[in-house]
Amino acid sequence: MLVLNEEQTRNALPWADLIEAVETMFRSDCVMPVRHHHDMEVPGGTSAVMLLMPAWLPGEHVGVKILNLFPDNHLRSLPTIIGNYLLSSGTTGEMQAIIEGGELTARRTAATSALAAKYLARDNAETLLMIGTGRLSLNLCQAHAVTRPLKRFLIWGRNGEKAEETAREARALDLDAAVVEDLERAVSSADIISCATLSHEPLIRGAWLKPGVHLDLVGAYKPSMRESDDETVRRCSLFVDTRAGALKEGGDLVQPIEAGVISKENIRAELAELARAAHPGRTSPEEITLFKSVGAALEDLAGAILAYRHASGRVAHP
Asked: Which residues form the signal peptide (predicted)?
């Protein structure tokens, strides 16, 4: 049985291969039961979340992710996401690999956003605005650069020092990155806006969005959280990773639906429909598109199979 640590997991999940693996899994007959989502009290701190996310390809692979999300861990110099993925044979049930869950989650999340942008962002998108400076920020910049010809990366964060650090790390990865302080101006100039924060209040205003922009909302993983305002969802063509997940957990959609601003019918398609060509995705250069991601177990399974095959020297693509 393979045991992959954080670095080994990262090396076993190259971006182009991972994006393709996630796309293939969205087209597949993967079985994905409703995930277990448990809030956990943390005395003296922000409540944590335990996630149990099972999925399987009948006769091929079975997997489950056990993940703990502790929002205050940055105060302890620890990762916010801690956990592991257990991959087993779908024929015998034998354990095949234990894969570090934080790195798997970060990379498959970014790969899923990049896959959505393949269908929803303009072909000539050159400027990406990254809102947020957490673990996902560099992953999102790198992954989006695989599916679109990005030339400039703008970094915005509440903490200026952290934003500068993220920009330096991006430049070390050969990305032309710079910090921006005026969020309204940055939003109005970007071709793709990727937002990965723990915000409970809107950061993005719909009035700021230029025609043709693609908005990638990755944070706000609870109904009480939000990264965009009502005008944003009014102006955008709405897409999700899965309807079941986004309509239950994605505050950027749950709140305006509850307020009567939009309805469930405003969601044009989920990612499986885009991957299977059941929906065309972007339909005009001026269309403003929004992709809301809350995560799906099939994305983890796709990454776990790819990591297992890469690390064991098997075929690179599931």
From this structure: none
pLDDT digits (tens, 9 = 90+) for 176-222: 999 999 999 999 999 999 999 999 999 999 999 999 999 999 998 88
Asked whether the beta carbons of 288 and 234 are under 8 A apart, the reply is no
Give the Cα separation of 138 and 142 in Å (integer): 6
List beta partners, residue 89. Answer: 61
Q: DSSP 3-state assignment of 135?
A: helix
**Cα separations (Å) of 63 from 57, 89, 168?**
9, 9, 36
Residues written for the chain: 318
Q: How many CB atoms lie within 10 A of CB 149?
A: 9
For 137-156, what is the HEC assignment? HHHHHHHHHHHCCCCEEEEE
The reply to whether 133 and 205 lie within a common domain is: yes
317 within domain boundaries:
no
Range of the domain at 147: 106-295
* pTM score above 0.85: yes
Domain of 73: which CATH number?
A: 3.30.1780.10
